[in-house]
Amino acid sequence: METLDTAFFVAWFEEAARLVRRDRDRLTALDAAIGDADHGTNLDRGLTEVAKALAEWPPDTPVQVLTSAGATLIRRVGGASGPLYGSVFRQMGKALRAPVTLAGFSAAFEEGVVALERLGKAALGDKTMVDALAPASRALALAVRDGVGVREAFEQAARAAAEGAQATIPMQARKGRASYLGERSIGHEDPGAASAALFMAALATVAA
User: Which of 9, 35, 43, 163 gives 31 a disulfide partner, CB atoms 3.0 to 4.6 angstroms apart?
Assistant: First the structure.
């Protein structure tokens, strides 16, 4: 049975930081259309701090990686996205059990998404990062059920997240600052869903 070690989790956040840095301007442009125009820059700064923290205080366990990342994002990322992402990773850290299997990761990730939904009071169809992360969580659970390998499982989750992010384009926002725009929020991809898809793409890359 494949296990996910501390190095895997560190690499996940390093790759997420790289992808967010690459797409920083795109994320900020998406946020400019329906939000505060700072999602890309804020998240880039936060993940840079996460990578710095993990390098300066090397974690011994996957739980420490998640706890450190979650706490750093809450402290360093402005707006709502810092506390929201932070809640996902901190809850994952609480739920994770060693050694970390794909099934264990999937179960902890599901708890992280539930914590996100609770904190943000958001559900599928509200045009938020939930629209990317909830389908990714479902895809992971199905992969575990079907007995597929880690690489394929995370690829399936990444595809589900990307499709979920794209599906926010025709939606009218019901949560967050974008909801104030009413019908004018229709036609724009949600920036939080877009960045959530990057986190899942990073997982697939590291697993490969």
Answer: 35
pLDDT in tens, 36-71: 888 999 999 999 999 999 999 999 999 999 999 999
Q: What token pair was written down for 23?
A: 């797409």
d(CA 12, CA 34): 29
Query: Which of helix, strand or coil describes residue 101?
Result: strand
Measured CA distances, 81 to 18, 97, 100, 191 (Å): 18, 26, 26, 10
CA separation, residue 205 to residues 12, 20, 24, 56, 135 (Å): 8, 14, 19, 24, 18
Q: What is the largest CA-CA distance in the chain?
A: 49
What's the one-letter identity of residue 152? E
Residue partners of 204: CB distance under 8 A and separation at least 6: 151, 154, 155, 157, 158
Per-residue pLDDT of 121-173, as tens digits, reads: 999 999 999 999 999 999 999 999 999 999 999 999 999 999 999 999 999 88
Q: Name 30's Cβ contacts closer than 8 Å, sequence gap at least 6.
A: 39, 40, 188, 189, 190, 191, 194
- Retrieve residue 43's tokens: 């998240």
